[in-house]
# Entry
Amino acid sequence: MEYLKTRMMKYHVKWLLPLLLCLLLLISASCAETVREGWICLNCGQEAGGDTCSVCGELRGAWTCAECGNRNLSSACRNCGKQKKVSLALQAADSRPLAAFPAVRCLADSGDPVALLRLGRYYEKGICVPQDAGQAVLCLRTAGEKGSVAAWLYLGRLYDAGVAVEQDYELAVGCYRRAADLGSAEACWYLGSCYEEGTGVEQDYAEAIGFYRRSAELGDPDAWMSLAYCYLRGNGVEENTDTALEYYRKAAEGGSALACDYLGYLYMSGSLVPQDTAQGLDWYRKAADLGCARSMYALGYAYQCGQGVELSMAEALRWYEKAALTGYPLAQQVYEVFAE
Ligand SMILES: [Zn+2]
Ligand SMILES: [Zn+2]
# Structure
């Protein structure tokens, strides 16, 4: 009897399992069906159901070619042959949010990380959609999960600054870590500065230096600058001015405007290095070429005082104006005084 019972049980298990599996498959298939029920209208960008958009009346699947403006239902434009996918990508890259929105929403819906990042920013700022921090975070996180470094960095900065979301340094660090894992030099630099200042993590100079080094190796010249500062102050390493100067130079040669500006200041003022106005002005010029407003202002000042150059008010004004145009407040004030 006992034996028969176990036989029966085995028999049941044998048939029950495949039956359960079939049922599960059926359920999941019907779920997938319901998810696909809704669609994104390519005319107005709103979510629609049924055969036409309830907002604008557009047909399901209809799209307007971004190249020639022809309306289509097929997978390629009947007029110019452009593929629907390519047309959508073109439309989504339009710098005018209203024009880009339907394509952005449609591509985001299909999981495109670039479109998800853009839609996240729309939700953050309330462009084309009602402002919604929860949706913004969701879009940015999904974009990040799909490998978008820019999305993790963007979300990290939102948490860092407390913009649209509540300020949360720990969450910011988490986002930077995800971007760093994807090989982002910028994220490594952020992590370095978090460890240096102890924001979102316990302060740890050794960790800070490790991340700055990784960032520098990955190609962020500003990371050499942060390393140089650690050597200058003896933060986590033995104080060493020569190493600091070497790293400032590495940063400058790698294209860091800040480092060029700082070297300019060091040579002009003779701190850490023997004073050398010609070299100082050279570094200021390099920094100005890289867009550094402070160096433009400093060059204006050098011409105004005849510091290492022949005094020229015209040249001074030219540099002050340049600096003012990039939004340097001090230069704006000085320019207004002298331009009269
Ligand atoms: Zn519509
Ligand atoms: Zn076309």
Summary: The beta strands are 39-40, 47-48, 63-64, 71-72. Residues 65, 67-68, 70, 77, 79-80, 82 surround zinc ion (ligand 2) (CB under 6 Å). The two ends are 111 Å apart (CA to CA). Residues 256-340 form a domain with the Serine Threonine Protein Phosphatase 5, Tetratricopeptide repeat fold (CATH 1.25.40.10).
